[in-house]
């Protein structure tokens, strides 16, 4: 049904909007959001007796490069999802094979978004840098909400669409 195709397109656009807002915020409020990355990388607010602090990155250059990489990945997520949603919208009345192929950029964007928040924030930030131990700079709960939302949309989008029934 056309409503399912429009629904999938709208959900991809919603993720594109979210990733755009995150990237925009990180770019326009670089210093405030950089403080978060700096503290996570420096591991200066985790449990004082933690023995994993040898993993800390205290070089401002490396911290800035890491933050720029995060912003680039968030921006690319947004771009892929926006373009993907547009392509899906244009092909909403096409045959099933064409519409299913039109999902490619959306799937790429959603996958990248999942990787940014699950691998980048949850795994690397949360586990490698021990972000979960920080009372001040713990982004694990937020990252979890983000990647769960993204994976739900990704699962929905990749479900194959059949031929339109003429309604």
What does this structure look like?
The mean pLDDT is 97. The protein has 167 residues and is an all-alpha fold. The longest helix has 31 residues, at 60-90. The radius of gyration is 19 Å and the shape is elongated. Helix 1 (2-28) packs antiparallel against helix 3. The chain has helices spanning 2-28, 30-42, 60-90, 96-101, 104-128, 140-158. The chain is 72% helix and 0% strand. It has one domain (2-158). It has 6 helices and no strands.
Gist?
By secondary structure, the protein is an all-alpha fold.
Percentage of helical residues? over 70%
Number of strands: 0
Number of domains: 1
Strand content: under 5%
Backbone shape: elongated
Instruction: Figure out the total of helices.
Output: 6
User: Which stretches of 5+ consecutive residues score pLDDT under 50?
Assistant: none
Rounded to the nearest angstrom, the distance between the terminal CA atoms is 7 Å
- The radius of gyration is 19 Å
How would you characterize the largest beta sheet?
none
Please state the structural category. mainly alpha
List the helices and strands in order.
Answer: HHHHHH
Mean pLDDT: 97
Keywords:
167 residues, mainly alpha, 6 helices
Please specify the SSE layout and strand pairing.
Elements: H1 2-28, H2 30-42, H3 60-90, H4 96-101, H5 104-128, H6 140-158
